[in-house]
């Protein structure tokens, strides 16, 4: 039922196949709220949200998954819940959120209650495809950055089923000058893969290097005593409005816009074992509304955004969860990171 330890770099996956699991799911997620020091009122509200989400999965979709992640930032903390199912879907999700609407002769207050009690709520559903529900609950309302350009980065990162640690990992650095984004996949899975990617993230966060190629070379030296990893680094300059990217190994990176779509071709090699002697950064143009999507090889490569009408108008976690839902191999650590610059 539980795959992975709660952590802010990856989601914990709870399966909700039938009603017998509902109490366990509620208890486990309640314990996460205690770790973040939710007050009693917020804990009670979160309990209601979790109970309604899990009940809806069993009642309307024949079961599904709840992905849970702690949100720990310097100025705020919270919990993110993503409910995913392959049920019949909804023809009018907006109407179903209204209190009093029901398809199973109940009070019909489930989705309405989740929306009211969540600080962030979104619902995406397609007939004969299923439903993704996003809810975020904060210990206090997070501040809105006033000086930096709007940056939205949303991950779905989960361990291989049955593993308690995740060998995929991502990290970001945002300054007044620009954004850096890293996605890495430690070789194999489990604790050793997790250690490799965590060491790479330390270098990413602490290194004074600015160019992706130089950061990868520093990372290569820092992780030599680990089993190694593959990884890609993106940089966006707020002034020039251009992307710079370099990667080693099989991290898929796609720049998806209305005017053009471009996939980044990474170098062959393994960070920490063997990397090319000569590497160069690749520049990619920027357009308003452009998405950058990064995936580890836990996601099948031939995915298509056109099957998700209007999904780009939702929180990017919905898109990341949709790719996880439809294209995860379920045999390895899995990661999808989606970014958009305002």
Would you report the number of β strands? 16
What is the CATH class name of the largest domain? Alpha Beta
Order of helices and strands: EEHHEEHHEEEEEHHEEEEEEHE
- Helical stretch count? 7
Q: Estimate what percentage of residues fall within beta strands.
A: 25-35%
Query: Looking at the structure, what is the overall shape?
Result: globular
| Oligomeric state of shown chains | single chain
Largest sheet, spatial ordering of strands: 1-2-3-4-6-5
Uncertain spans: 1-7, 100-108
In the CATH scheme, what's the topology name of the largest domain?
A: Phosphatase 2c, domain 1
Rounded mean pLDDT score = 90
In CATH, the architecture of the largest domain is 4-Layer Sandwich
Account of the protein in words:
This protein is an alpha+beta fold. The chain has 2 domains: 2-138, Heat Shock Protein 90, CATH 3.30.565; 151-341, PPM-type phosphatase domain (Phosphatase 2c, domain 1, 4-Layer Sandwich). It is built from 7 helices and 16 strands. The strands form 3 sheets. A 6-stranded antiparallel sheet has the order 1-2-3-4-6-5, sandwiched between helices. Strands 7-16-15-12-13 form a 5-stranded antiparallel sheet, covered by helices on one side. A 5-stranded antiparallel sheet has the order 8-9-10-11-14. Helix 1 (22-35) packs antiparallel against helix 2, helix 2 (40-61) packs antiparallel against helix 4 (110-117) and helix 5 crosses helix 6 (212-222). It is globular and about 60 Å long.
Q: TL;DR of this structure?
A:
This protein has 342 residues and is an alpha+beta fold. The protein has helices at 22-35, 40-61, 93-97, 110-117, 191-206, 212-222, 316-327, and strands at 2-3, 12-15, 65-72, 77-85, 120-126, 130-138, 151-158, 168-174, 178-186, 229-237, 242-248, 252-256, 261-264, 282-284, 291-295, 334-341. A six-stranded antiparallel sheet has the order 1-2-3-4-6-5, with helices on both faces.
């Amino acid at each position: 039922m539980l795959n992975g330890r709660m952590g802010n770099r990856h989601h914990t996956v709870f399966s909700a196949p039938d009603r017998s699991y509902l109490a366990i799911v509620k208890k486990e997620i309640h314990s996460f709220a205690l770790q973040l020091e939710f007050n009693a009122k917020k804990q009670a509200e979160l309990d209601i949200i979790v109970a309604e989400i899990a009940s809806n999965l069993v009642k309307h979709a024949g079961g599904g998954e709840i992905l849970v992640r702690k949100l720990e930032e310097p100025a705020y903390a919270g919990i993110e819940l993503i409910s995913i199912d392959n049920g019949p879907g909804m023809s009018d999700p907006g109407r179903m959120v209204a209190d009093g609407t029901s398809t199973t002769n109940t009070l019909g207050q489930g989705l309405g209650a989740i929306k009211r009690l969540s600080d962030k709520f979104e619902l995406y559903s397609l007939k004969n495809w299923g439903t993704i529900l996003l809810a975020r609950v904060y210990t206090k309302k997070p501040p809105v950055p006033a000086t930096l350009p709007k940056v939205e980065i949303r991950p779905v990162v989960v361990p291989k089923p049955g593993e308690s640690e995740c060998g995929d990992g991502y990290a970001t650095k945002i300054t007044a000058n620009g954004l850096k984004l890293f996605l890495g996949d430690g070789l194999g899975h489990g604790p050793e893969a997790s250690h490799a990617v965590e060491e790479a993230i330390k270098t990413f966060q602490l290194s004074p290097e600015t160019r992706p190629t130089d950061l990868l070379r520093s990372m290569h030296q820092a992780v030599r005593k680990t089993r190694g990893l593959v990884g890609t680094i993106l940089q966006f300059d707020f002034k020039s409005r251009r992307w710079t990217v370099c990667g080693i190994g099989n991290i898929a990176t796609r720049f998806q816009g209305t005017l053009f779509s471009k996939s980044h071709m990474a170098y062959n090699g393994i960070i920490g074992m063997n990397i090319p002697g000569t590497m160069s950064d690749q520049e990619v143009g920027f357009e308003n509304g452009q998405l950058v999507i990064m995936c580890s090889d836990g996601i099948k490569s031939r995915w298509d955004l056109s099957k998700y009408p209007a999904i780009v108008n939702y929180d990017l976690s919905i898109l990341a969860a949709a790719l996880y839902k439809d294209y995860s191999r379920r045999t390895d650590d899995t990661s999808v990171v989606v970014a958009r610059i305002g």
